[in-house]
């Protein structure tokens, strides 16, 4: 998985991991590979624990209530997970930038790509573009990639369900 200028792919992936956390090292490895990450070494339970710890800290970035707090939380993740940028051509797809040290395990790569991707997403599209679904019984995390930037639900399904409910509530009065 390469970082595009707005970090969309890593942000989509960490949202999926947040809403449905992996329950085994094998599952983590499979899902990372499906997301386009290079999985070239054995993924261990330590990787799983590191990934889950990162996901719970990343969730705090989603739940931050001010831009400043969101930035501060993400800056801590960036300080822990990323390193100076460098050019590399280790994989097919040509030269690209890594914001991390070489030779990290899968969880280390995930932490770096998700932290930098989130910083690109928020700085490029807007600091408010992470949130929780407004449908009360859902509450899934989402990232807003829409043009208008006014997303409030994780999916069309939840938006429609809430619209139907509000319509019924109005008619009942
Ligand atoms: Zn790479
Ligand atoms: Zn939802």
From TrEMBL:
Pfam family, one: zf-CGNR
Zinc finger CGNR domain segment(s): 129-171
Xref: InterPro entries: ABATE (IPR010852), ABATE_dom_sf (IPR023286), Znf_CGNR (IPR021005)
Name used for this protein in its record: CGNR zinc finger domain-containing protein
